[in-house]
Structures are given as structure tokens and as C-alpha cells.
Amino acid sequence: MQVSPPHSQRQLISGKVGWGWRQATYPISVNFGFAGFLMLMVAIAQLLQTGDLNLLSIAGFLILVGILLGIFTARKVVEVCRQNSEYSFSQLQLIGIGSYWLVLIGGLIKFSEPLSKVFVAIWWILPAAIFTGISISLALRSSKPKPTNRTKQSLESASLDFLNADVLNVVTYSDRTVLVSPSSLGQQPRQFNSLVMIVLGFFFWTMLDFPSAIRAIAAIAFTVTGLTGFFTWQAQLRSPEKILNLRFSGLWGISAEYEIDLRPFTSLSIVKLQEANGELSWMQLSGSSREITMPLAMTLAGQTKDAIKEGEPANQNDRFAQTIREEFHLAKQETERDSLGLANVLLPQGAGILAGTAFVAVGVLVLCLFPLPAKLSAESAISCFGVCVVSPAIARLSLQLVAPNSLQSDRQNHLKNYLQSWEIGTAILLVVSFLSTQATAKVGFPIVFNQILPLITLICGWLSVAIGVCLLAFVRRTPLWNNTY
What we know:
- Keywords: Membrane, Transmembrane, Transmembrane helix.
- The structure is a single chain.
- Among the domains are: 144 residues, no CATH class; 140 residues, no CATH class.
- Helix content is 61%, strand content 13%.
- By secondary structure, the chain is an alpha+beta fold.
């Protein structure tokens, strides 16, 4: 988000875009290394059980190719950390991932159960090797020469200053545009760790030999948690236009953008809940006729470590609020309200949390109580992908129903002429249902229904859990509006 400024001629005045990028690559390297090692060990263990040396030779070749691809991909990971931007897949990467996914689907359709397990194990060798290559490359790129005695003290001092600094990064450009976002150290490890969790979710469903219910719950928990965590956020403050632009990146409907005109607002208030003794607080833009409550994902990020130790409210002295006030000349207010006075915030956020929790609980119960597919099939693998694509859109619609005063994303207006993710996800699930019915088309209806019921149960359970997790994530990332007249 910070690598593509709206004005190509503007120059950096203050701040550092990639603050903490080198430290951020350490946990990223560990995450990729752990996931790659885990997938490699499980896949190779299954291949060793066959005793076929030809399969091991194929695995060795795939490991070599994967490590080389991982080393090449690591360059982009480093660049993303330096620019503190969202990770976007290139067209070549999307074609490669899509083609490789189709190979998996084709193999599951063609091979019987014993051969399909071997095929899937070989299939996972390449992604595991890519993760391993990324980990190795990041570890080498992040390593620094041992400091001399002259510079050791200054480096240690700078490291301590960094650890005690606010987690928010403020960058100012010559056109009076200010960008506020988490630092690279605070944002990038979470983003890439979420990518690892998405892959591990698919890995658990296709490779684990646990009961179907355990595999299904583990797969959707990892996949959807990674899907909702694979995001970055940025606030763009455009002082001349009096515009506050809030951007959330993400996959398949997770992204959102809110453009707020600040001319009607006169102050930025920190509102505390009286019953919570100031432990719960919200940041609100206040005007004569309207209030907008800022997303919790942005306002809570400004809490410093000292504030956490002292038990101070998350938004009391955070850098985000201070920057907004200075750039737009807003007054500072701190008020306390009871539950009735904060009903316009507590009710929609509480309703969203309750609805998300209910969806997750229902989905887990469905996966635990009803029959699921006993073996891995192409339909179930496609269903997992389809559920991830369609669930964010359903979750946004559900949030609008339970919290009508949630701001709608402006990004949807820009994409109205394109095929949207929920349409693709719906088409995928319909194709899966069609393939399942065609496989048993020659038998009677009761038998057909009994044979496709496990897959329908799996889709419903996964969809319910995914919608719930997305709802819980959107509650933290959606501004709320309220008319005060």
C-alpha cells in the first residue's frame, strides 16, 4: 500500500516506510521453515512406507525445484517487508498455483484411494520445499555481520529504542499526505504467518489420518484464521482535501476501503465505558450531527508497551489519534459514558460478536455430529477452496443485517464491473454439487441423497465456521456511524 503513492512526484519528508523490516524477516523465516519441515516430514514418511525408490527420486527432484523457487520468491518477501506493503501474487504465481491445484484435483479424480494417498504426498513435496527455500533464503538475507566494539553499543541502543517505540509507523510526504500503518515488524510476520496457516489448513485436510471430524475442524480453523489474518492496514491522511482514507488489504472479499470526509467533524474523542473503569475505550470522530467510531483493529494498534504494563486504556495516548488531530486540526476530548450512552457502539459490535460465535458453534456441532466423507475426494478439496472464497461476502452481508450502522466498503463500488469473489465461490460450490450428483446418477434418489449427504454436511459445517470467523474479524475492522441529531 505504501509502494504506490497517488502522486508520482511527491517525495518522502519524514518517517521510514520499512521500519523494522530486517527484524520482521526473522519470525517469517521461522514460520516458513517450521511449516516446510512439517510438510516434508509427513509427506516423505508416507512415501517411505511404499518402499519405492522411484517415488523417492521424484521427491528429491521436487525438493530441489521447490527450494530454487523458494529462494526466488524470498526476494519478493523481502521487498514487501522493506516497503511494508501487502503481499500480492503476481500473474505468473497465480497461473502456477492454479495449474498445480488442478493437478491435485485431476489426481484425486483419476486414482483410487491407496494410490491417491501416495499422489497427494508427492504433490505436497513441492509446496513444502518452496516454504523451506523461502526460510533458508530469508535467514541468509537477514543475517548481518558481527558488529565491532565501536558500533556494538550504538546498535544495542538502537535496538532497545526500537523495541520501546510505538508499533505504528508515520510517514509524511511532500504533498502533505501522511500514511499511518503498523511497522513492518508489527505487521509483516502476521501477514506471512497467516499465509502459512492457509496452506497448513489444506495440508491437514488432505494428509492427516485422524477421524474426519477432527481433520475437518482443524482444516477450516487453520484455513479461515489464516484467511482473515492475511491482511495489512493503512490510514492515508490527505490534509488538503480533508479526507481520511482507511484501507484494509486481503484475499477474496477480506479487503475493504473507507473514505471519510472530515469536514463535518470538529473533534476526535476517546470515549470510555464507565462500567469498565476506563478499560474499554473507543476512538470517535465527533461532529454536530454525526459520529464515526474508528475500527478497533486500527485504534488498539496504537497501544504502547508501557501502557499495557500500567493498565492504561488502549487509545489514551496512541500515535494514530495524535496524528489525525494534528493533520486535520481536530480538538481532543476524553469522555465517559454508560452502557446506554454507548448503545450505538456496544449493540452492533456485541451483535456481530454474538452472531460470529453462533456461526462458529453451529459449524463445529455440524462437523462433530453429522456424517462426513470417510476418504479424501476431489469434491471435498474443491469445496474447501470454494467455502474460503464465498464466506467473506456472506459474512459482510450478515454484519450489515445485525449491525446496520456499519459503514459499507467503498472498494465494492470500484469492483462492480468485475466478477466478484462470492460469485466465483458460489459457482465452485454448485459445480461440486453437480459432480457429486452425477457420480451417483444411475441409482435412486434415496441412495443418491445418502451418498452426497456427507459432502453437503462438510460444506455446511465449513461454511458456518468460515462465516463466523470472518464476522468476528469484520467487527474489529469496520467503522460505525451514528447520527446525533
